[in-house]
Design goal:
This protein is α/β, with parallel strands linked by helices. It contains ten helices and 15 strands. The strands form three sheets. The chain has a seven-stranded mixed beta sheet. A six-stranded parallel beta sheet has the order 12-11-8-13-14-15. A two-stranded antiparallel ribbon has the order 9-10. A hairpin with a 4-residue loop joins β6 and β7. α2 crosses α5. The longest helix has 22 residues.
């Protein structure tokens, strides 16, 4: 038996035993909705089924206590934000969010407009459903997910207008959120020990995004990260707290795959970027990341393969110490050099230590 197979079987065994143990303690399988997205032709519905204490489902928090941005008028988006606030309002140690018991192969019914689709969660509890010809108009909507146990939840979905020609894809760690990810000890402290509501933002990035999008209100925003889905509520609360534009999060699972013990963060980002290119063929993307590790290479590769689909690349530059701790040298990664093919072929690459510095260069984006 391959090591990856052993790891997957071990994980499945832990979850089976954990589910039985928690059921005896009164916990129940609960559908946790994530923000889905799609075009007017196809829609991705995203959610996960995990074991949850019943009392956690009854916590209600008023929106006005948290200063929800006033520009959020759509009721589906407000419900979405309220739902996130409810699950994230009470600060807890970061390590708790990584210990969940997922419920695999649970039958669910997804209601999208007039369409009803019967499916089930995968072995890791995820629901990742593609719905074609759904009939929804551009804007934010809600779809209903009903589990075999009778529980129903509403999941927000963002339908991108066919008139949209610009979109923004942003990394999270060390791009909008200060994690010092290259530093193992501080990364561990930030992710597993520090209170989840005490994260700091990279200065000026929220203002940069507002500037980039102010003339294109129909432009979709996606947050692409190698972070785990377990941190979804925390990250979305961070986005809300620092007034970044709302948009779906594309996270990953750290568990084993059929071919490896741990999933590849690089492959996750490459796959999601290409999925977005396919789903939205009329959009040119502004790609935002940092030059600590793989973002420059991934974005550079995408721009070389699809030059007509990348409008600009924006890279937050890490300091010398951060670079050394990231990959062992003070030099920036290959994809962030000033002599890359993408720049020679006309794709602007903006670099700066924070959002304010990058904002000063946005005149280069045509």
């Amino acid at each position: 038996m391959a090591l990856a197979d052993f790891a997957r079987n071990f994980e499945d065994g832990i979850n089976r035993r954990g589910t039985v143990r928690l059921r005896k303690r009164g916990w129940i399988p609960t559908v946790i909705p994530y923000a889905g997205y799609g075009s007017t032709h196809a829609l991705k519905v995203l959610a996960r089924v995990i074991m949850t204490q019943p009392e956690h489902l009854n916590t209600r928090v008023r929106l006005d206590r948290f200063g929800l941005p006033g520009h959020i008028k759509n009721s589906a988006v407000r419900d979405f934000a309220e739902q996130v606030i409810e699950t994230s309002a009470v600060a807890q140690r970061g390590w708790r969010q990584f210990f969940t018991t997922q419920v695999g192969f649970l039958p669910v019914t997804v209601q999208v407009g007039e369409k009803r689709i019967h499916t089930r969660s995968d072995r890791n509890g995820y629901i990742d459903l593609l719905v074609e010809e759904h009939g929804l108009t551009p804007g934010w909507h809600e779809v209903t997910i009903t589990s075999a146990l009778g529980e129903s939840v509403n999941a927000p979905v963002m339908i991108v207008s066919p008139q949209a020609t610009t979109g923004l894809i942003s990394d999270i760690d060390d791009t909008i959120l200060v994690t010092w990810l290259p530093r193992a000890t501080l990364s561990f402290w930030n992710s597993f020990v520090k209170h989840t509501n005490s994260r700091q933002t990279v200065p000026g990035m929220a203002e940069l995004y507002k500037h980039l999008l102010h003339s294109t209100p129909e432009a979709p925003v996606f947050y692409l990260s190698t972070g785990a889905w377990n941190t979804y509520g925390t990250l979305l609360e961070f986005i809300r707290r620092y007034r970044f534009p709302l948009g779906p999060l594309l996270l990953t699972d750290w568990g084993p795959t059929p071919n490896a013990v741990f999933r590849s963060g690089q492959e996750h980002k490459k796959t999601q970027l290409r999925n977005l290119l396919i789903m939205f063929p009329n959009i040119k993307w502004i790609l935002v990341g940092d030059d600590g590790q793989h973002d420059p290479l991934i974005y550079d590769e995408l721009a070389r393969e699809h030059p007509a689909r990348v409008r600009a690349i924006l890279l937050r530059e890490l300091g010398i110490v951060e670079q050394v701790l990231s990959h062992g040298t003070p030099e920036r990664s290959v994809g962030s050099r000033h002599d890359t093919d993408t720049e020679r072929d006309g794709t602007p690459v903006l670099r700066g230590a924070n959002g304010a510095v990058l904002l000063q260069q946005t005149h280069r984006i045509s």
